[in-house]
C-alpha cells in the first residue's frame, strides 16, 4: 500500500528542517499475515523513520480491531528512512505531522484487514546469507572521544568503536502451487541517503523492492531493519566517492541479489512451528543535569529571538529540553520486546536504534538456527548505545530525548530477549 505524504510536508530530520519539494519514489506499507490456527501474527513494514511509542500503542489497538487480531500480535516496524514525513520529534522548529498519522491509522487498518481476509493456505521457506550494506560509523580518537562518522585517515584515528553485521535473512511465503505470496528480508543499516535533501523517498528499499517484484511478481515486500544505531551505509575505513543515486542503486541491487539467491535455494514447509511471546521492559530514563538543562533553555531562547542556530547545537539543546518535558515527572520508559518463531527462524523485535553489538549478543544467546534482531518496532525508544558509546561522549553520550535510556538499557534488553527466545524454543522441544 502506498503511504505517501503530500508534497510540501515536513521531511524527517534532526538539525535540518525542510519541506518536501517532490516524491522521488513511493513510501509503502507492506504486511505479512501468518497463522497456524492457534497463533495469528500480523507484521507490518512501513517506509518511515519511526513512530512514537504512545501513538503505536493506539495504532495497534485500532489495527487489531479492524483485522480481528489481538493487538499485541500486531507488530508495526519502520525501515528508518530519513526521506519520510516528520513522525519522531527531533527538531525544535519542525512539528510532528499529526494529520499524516491520522491517515496512517486508516491505511494500516485497511491493509491489515485485507491481509487477513485474503489469506490462503501456503508454505514458508527461509535462508540466511550475507550482504555488506552497513558498516560501523562510530570512530574513536586518540584523546578518548568518539564521533559518528569522521576521517579514518587522520593521524589520531584509534579504531572503530564497535562491530557491524552483514547477516541477510530472506523469508518467502508461497501458495500451495509455489507461487510467491509475500517476501520478508532483513539486514542492518541506516537508510539516510536523502537526509536533509527535502524529498520523500524510501531510500534503497525502493530499488530492492522493484527488483524483487520484477522477479517474484507484485507481492508484499517487507524490509525489517536490524540493530543499526551505530551502523551506516558508508564504509568509514574505505570511503568512496559516490552520488546518492549511485549508492541507492548499488545497495538496492546488492540486497535484492542476495535475497533472490537465498530464495532459489529454499525448501518450503507447509506447517512450520509458529509461536510468539513478548515482554514490556521497564527501563529508567536518564534525565539531563540541571546545568545541561539550563544551557539548553538559553540556547533555545536565542533561537526564539531569531538567531539562526541549526545543526548539532539546536539538536542537543532541543533534545535535552524535550527529554525533561516528556519524562521529567516520571523518568521511566517502556520497551515492547517480542520474540517470534517461524520454523528455524527467530525474530526479536524492539523499538530502539539498538547498537549493533547488542544485536550480536542476542544472536549468540539464541537457540534458533537463524536469529534476526529487528529495530524500530512498536514504537521509538531512541538510540540505545553500549557503555563505550556513552563513554565516548557526543551524540551517543548526552541525555537527549532520543538517547534517553539508562546506560545499562541495552544489556537489560539482551537479557529480556534471551529469556523470551528460550521460552519459545524450550516449549517446542
Give structural notes:
- It is a single chain.
- The chain has 429 residues and is an alpha+beta fold.
- It has 2 domains: 10-135 and 162-275 and 335-383, no CATH class; 287-327, no CATH class.
- 31% of the residues lie in helices and 25% in strands.
- It contains 9 helices and 21 strands.
- The strands form 7 sheets. A 5-stranded mixed β-sheet has the order 13-12-11-6-15, with helices on one face. A 4-stranded mixed β-sheet has the order 16-17-18-20, with helices on one face. A 3-stranded mixed β-sheet has the order 3-4-5, covered by helices on one side.
- Strand 17 and strand 18 (345-349) form a beta hairpin.
- Helix 3 runs parallel beside helix 4 and helix 5 (290-304) crosses helix 6 (311-327).
- The radius of gyration is 21 Å and the shape is globular.
- The two termini are 39 Å apart.
What does the overall shape look like? globular
Number of helices: 9
Q: Secondary-structure element sequence? A: EEEEHEHEEEEEEEHEEHEEHHEEEHEEHH
The value of Rg in angstroms is 21 Å
Oligomer: single chain
Taken as a percent bin, the fraction of beta residues is 15-25%
User: Could you give the distance between the termini?
Assistant: 39 Å
Q: Which strand order does the major sheet show?
A: 13-12-11-6-15
Q: Please tally the β strands and state the result.
A: 21
Mean pLDDT: 96
- Which segments are poorly predicted (pLDDT under 50) over 5 or more consecutive residues? none
